[in-house]
Structures are given as C-alpha cells and as structure tokens.
Please model this.
Amino acid sequence: ECTGTEACVSNFCNSACSTSSECTGNAAGNTTCNTHSTTCYNATTNTNTTCADASGCTATQGCVSNFCTSCTASSDCAAQTSNTTCNTHSGVCYDATSNTA
Model:
C-alpha cells in the first residue's frame, strides 16, 4: 500500500527496504528489494544484477543506479578491475590503457 518503490517496514511506508519481504504486495510489481539502493523494484522487467559498484558486475558493465547495465559515464565503470573507462557510444566499459583507439 506504499508508493511504487517504497517498502513497508514495521507497518510504516519507508523509502528504504532491507529485504524483499518488505516489498511484498507493492504496486507496479516492485516486489524485490535492491539492497544496495534500498528501493523496491520489479525483478520481472528489470533482470539486471544489483550492485554497490562495478566490481559486482561483468567486466564490461557499469553500475548505474545500483544496477549492472550499460555505462553512461566513466564513473559507472570506476570500480572495474581494468575496464574503468566508459565508451559512451556503445555503453561498454573498456580498458583505455590497452585500447587507445
């Protein structure tokens, strides 16, 4: 009965969730908790992995709004091991040291 991304914590609508059970019954199917951003989201339509930073994503993905997805800025890639630069045209994190093209 809370807003789309809010959780019900101890019978209060709270902007921060800590477990998916707090998102149960949420509008718009936002029944899963992204524990990094502490917001409820729809895991059916958003199948991206949740992340604290890009180190939790695949080598070419950035961490954008706590989801592993295409990068929009190099800051999205900052925590990658070597692919710390974002190719804004392709949305892929790459290693600017070895790939200077």
Observations:
- The radius of gyration is 16 Å.
- Strands lie at 7-9, 12-14, 32-34, 39-41, 62-64, 67-69, 85-87, 92-94.
- The first strand starts at residue 7 and ends at 9.
- The chain has no helices and eight strands.
